[in-house]
Amino acid sequence: MRDASEINVLIGCETSGEMREAFRALGFNAWSCDVDPADTPTNRHIRGDIRDQLDDPFWHLLCVAHPPCTRLCRAGQRWLYGPDKTHPKKLPKGRTWPDMIAEFHAACDLFEACLHAPIPLRAIENPIMHKWARERIRGLPKPQIVQPHQFGDPAFKATGFYLHGLPELVPDRALTPPKRGTDEYKKWQQVFRMPPGPNRAKLRSKTYPGVARAAAAQWGLHARKVAA
């Protein structure tokens, strides 16, 4: 089995460092990459388009890429199409329908590039997609759907992992969800109840610590076993 320090891990489309630092804590040579700078100073962040890194044979594991999901998740479907790809009933203030469709196709292209990257082991993260995204993205496999509370974080956020060469994550610190309608249940819905603001999308997309910890431990071990 190879040492963790010999496994090069690329965390795409991440500025928080949550996943990167989970891997680094276990000794992996992990780097994040995003067009925006890292949220906190680090020499382990590559600023640029993730697609510029995907063909580099240096990387063993692409885990986890977080392509922007605003135009791919089910919550955003209403801004794209009505029934049978007709004009949506309404659009965000100041936006045009062609703009929204162009952003949708750009998001699909980025996701598809990560999904089919020539990196041996890949886990591409996104919320549950709407039907137009599922139709548009080539070779989209069925994702593993996980919840933060399966890994010790008291929250609801259904997240899909599209895996290649990696096993599904095994819940390891599962919490019992509170009863629907209670105050505690509402607290667990913090992602959905987050008020509008300039950082809302960024905050909602951040990986929960328990999921990052489990990914680093389980997928990192797998990478150590199979890396040539």
- Largest beta-sheet details: 7 strands, mixed
Lateral arrangement of strands in the main beta sheet: 3-2-1-4-5-7-6
Which residues sit in consecutive blocks of at least 5 with pLDDT less than 50?
Answer: none
| Cα-based radius of gyration, to the nearest Å | 18 Å
CATH architecture: 3-Layer(aba) Sandwich
Overall helicity: 25-40%
Q: How many helices?
A: 7
CATH topology, which one?
Answer: Rossmann fold
Query: What is the helix/strand order?
Result: EHEEEHEHEEHHHH
- Please provide the count of β strands: 7
Beginning-to-end CA distance, first to last residue: 9 Å
If you had to describe this structure to a student in words, what would you say it looks like?
By secondary structure, the protein is an alpha/beta fold. It has a single domain, classed as 3-Layer(aba) Sandwich (Rossmann fold). 29% of the residues lie in helices and 15% in strands. It has helices spanning 18-25, 97-115, 131-136, 183-188, 190-193, 200-205, 209-226; strands spanning 8-12, 29-34, 45-47, 61-65, 121-127, 144-146, 159-164. A 7-stranded mixed sheet has the order 3-2-1-4-5-7-6, sandwiched between helices. α2 (97-115) links the parallel β4 and β5. It is globular and about 55 Å long.
Structure, briefly:
The protein has 228 residues and is of the alpha/beta class. It has helices at residues 18-25, 97-115, 131-136, 183-188, 190-193, 200-205, 209-226, and strands at residues 8-12, 29-34, 45-47, 61-65, 121-127, 144-146, 159-164.
